[in-house]
Amino acid sequence: MKPLFRYALGLTMLAMALVAVRAAHAFSYVGAPNGTFWGIQDAAPPGVDTGSIWGTQTGEGARAPFTTTINGYGGLRVRIDSSPAPRFNGQMLRGFGLQFDGHEHSVSTRAVALGPANITRSIWINRQANWGRWLDTFTNTSARPLTLDAAFGGQTGIGASGPYSSYLVRTSSGGTRVSPHDVWIAYATPAAKQASRLVGGTQITVTGRFFFAGDWLNDPFRDSLRYRGYRRNFPAFVNTLHIPADQSRSLLHFVVLGPRVNAQTSAAAQARAEAMAGQLAAHPNLAGLTPAEICSVANFTLTCPATAARRVPQPPPPAPLPTTTSVAYNVVGKTIDQLQAAMESGETTSQAITQAYLNRIAAYDRGQFGFHAFEIVAGNALAQAKATDVARRAGRRGRLLGIPVAIKNLYDTFDMPTTNGSLTFAGFRPAHDAFQVARLRSAGAVIIGKAAMEEYATNGFYSNDAWGQVWNVFSPSRSALGSSGGSAVAVAASFAAAALGTQTGDSLYAPASAAGLVTLRPTDGMESSSGIMPLVWMTDTGGVLARSVPDLTDMLNVVTGTDANDPATAEANKHRPHNWRSVLDPNALRGKRIGIIASAWRDPFGTHETLDAEKAALRFFTAAGATLVPMGATVGGPDRPPHPRDTAGGNLEAEGWMRYLDRHPELLAQGFPLHNFVQVECSQKMIAYSRLPLSACAEPEPPRMSAAQIAAHRAYRHLRQAGVRAWLNAAGADHRGVDAVVYPGLLSEISLNDGGGERPSFGRRDTPSAANGVPTVVFPAGRDILGNPVDIELLGRARDDAKLVGMAYAFELLANRAGDGHVSPSAVPPLRYVGRKR
Predict the structure, then answer these.
(1) In terms of Cα–Cα distance, which of 811, 800, 815 is closest to 738?
(2) How does 642-658 read in b/e, with b if 16+ C-beta sit within 10 Å?
(3) CA gap 418, 425 in Å, rounded
(4) Closest CA to 133 of 278, 270, 239, 280
């Protein structure tokens, strides 16, 4: 995707036949007199609801510059000492129903139940003093004493060095190492040398007493705080609480933000912030707290009325979600091959498989710890499945017959709203299916629901759907990446057998890499874009996310091909295999030359754990008979294909949207006042931090592209493809060329999911595929040292899609045999079957 710079939408009631997965609220900014805006992750769109700071910046919306490098700070993790440990033990908590009062306060409207503990947060951003206060309250609902560890922390910067990195500048004891004697800790970003350049100032956490300084990114209860490198940006402060039965304990934290500074003003600003932190540590501001809350605070010594209650009143948590299934057949981890075999043998039916997925969605995709993979679940999913069972009994066969599939919610579906992840299009019902969706229906697939996504598909770092942000199913505190995060999580979590996503920059292979899945960014025109809401016309493409390479081919057999309504696909039938399964050759890598570029295998953040796992997986190429060929600058050649200048002219984003609007008159008929690109782009119904201010939308509507401009741009895409071909043909020290180039799926660990903006804390590996219109296939390569999945990517020449898929299959066979291929998440185990076995 391209950097986020956009918009919003209009709310209408979803049809009664649909199951609405989440409710919408409102993201909140709190503005200080000095012009700083604190973005608080409350229950608002995208409903992250952690109570952490999304970011601090000067102004609201997409074009406001950041004041500090805080992108996700003030989060809460809790680890309970019990057996069995509660699900999500140690993960970042969310789902507090934090309600903003419109001025300075956000309070929980529901508790989060983690085992026997009920947990709530209240947040006060003091506008005048520019500090925030977090009160986290833990109530033991059991009849026995409870011990728990609670970590307060987050991300203070990004990178091991540079203007956005952070470092511990001082503690309350005057040192640069944290000890339990410290009551506040100051972080800062490097001050600029130029007087005119303003950068982030000091950020101070007032901790009171704490017992351990940990590493927030992975496990703050086990891993110590780092002081060097990339990991130094993730401080956490841990307290151990011993809570008697039916009593409450609370932790109080303050965060002080200094103003924007330069080299000349930094020292004075830091001194003022430290003075404020010292004052709060000695005399914490308790305004608005009840006697029971004050008496429950464990990390400050406070005067407590003897008559105060020992249990703090809290709103109740929601009713527990189901933990059982009514279906005996276990769909977890099943491939399309396995599902088809089970239906053909009579072991199960499409109705049972669909119900099993629906049970899992109800148990794991909703509620406070829901992964939010689906925006909408089809109310007619079981009816669709029943129809395929009837067809099977009548003799119909097909690889996708009866297979439940998820659809990213920017593909048109006539029976469900298509929202583009935004309230701008809430409730919009297209008159027809998108081309690929119609092909799936014709093949007998069950369209189980519309997958959540990044609003307008603009960002590859997160999937911030207006109805709830998507969370990583392998590491539930982290991002699922974007913009097809919902599609990827739906497959990885066994909520569906496969899914459709889209890609403009990296939005297929980033979420696939985060979920250990297979995907293909196809050659331009291999898959139709008809009926897909656009981002950048002629660069956008649809794509499949699947559990295995054979599953990918089953989907490609249906969704690829020529579409009369999409001129770009005119030659798709000519260049696609008649049957994609024909490329599943165990020897597809034998004799192949696979280029590897050293500069593409370096993490800009200076970490190595993710790349170590991906580099270890390269052995499967040589084991399969391929040769790894060094290429790039280290052997005298370029690291990337040539980049010819684009002289075609015209606005591809505007043209793409105007074509979509032209083909969808039902938008106006249904009351959506969207007549042109500017009205779509500048919608004030978008999520608060991504919408453009109206002042930025005063420019006139871009003119439509002429036929000559369109032809010139198609010619430019072909020129880019030819450049890749020439680059690969001459690659290697011997200039004998390579068959493909291998890239890592990710460069570093994925960030936590409460950060915002354009400075994510992980390094994606964007291949030069989308910009050049050539294919990249992505496939699993095992786990990293932390147990998270890693993927490998192969980039090839235009129309080499089938060859790349075959190579991925040969790799997959060897990797799976060695236990270093596809992996399954542990956060979504099989549900307990309750019912009569057949």
Answers:
(1) 800
(2) eeeeeebebbbbbbbbb
(3) 7
(4) 280
Structure tokens at 636: 């005298």
HSE value, Cβ hemisphere, 13 Å, CA-based, for 411: 35
At residue 67, the pLDDT reads 61
pLDDT tens for 717-742 read 999 999 999 999 999 999 999 999 99
The residue among 105, 117, 89 whose CA lies nearest residue 42 is 105
CB neighbours of 383 closer than 8 A, spacing ≥ 6? none
CA distance 381 to 365: 17
CB 560 within 8 A of CB 575: no
Element containing residue 709 per DSSP (H, E): helix 707-729
The structure tokens 């908590």 sit at 93
Listed as ranges, residues in the chain with pLDDT below 50 are 1-26, 194-198, 838
Q: What does the pLDDT look like over 750-802, one tens digit per residue?
A: 989 998 655 555 667 789 999 999 999 999 999 999 899 999 999 999 999 99
For the chain, the maximum distance between any two Cα atoms, rounded to a whole number of angstroms, is 85
Encoded tokens for 2: 């391209």
Q: pTM of the prediction? A: 0.95
Ordered strands of the 53-58 beta sheet: 28-31, 36-40, 53-58, 73-80, 146-154, 235-243, 212-215
Alpha-carbon Rg for the chain, nearest whole angstrom, is 27
Taking residue 719's Cβ as centre, other Cβ atoms within 10 Å add up to: 14
Task: Give me the active site residues, please.
Answer: 408, 483, 507
d(CA 696, CA 744): 38
Element (H, E) at 541: strand 541-546
**Residue for token digits 């026995």?**
144
Please, what's the b/e burial string for 413-447 (b: 16 or more CB within 10 A of its CB; e: otherwise)?
bebbbbbbbbbbbbbbbbeebbbbbbbbbebbbbb
Place of tokens 């919009």: 428
Residue 186: alpha-carbon gap to chain centroid: 30
- Helix (H), strand (E), coil (C) string for 363-431: HHCCCCCCCCCEEEECCCHHHHHHHHHHHHHCCCCCCCCCCEEEEECCECCCCCCCCCCCHHHCCCCCC
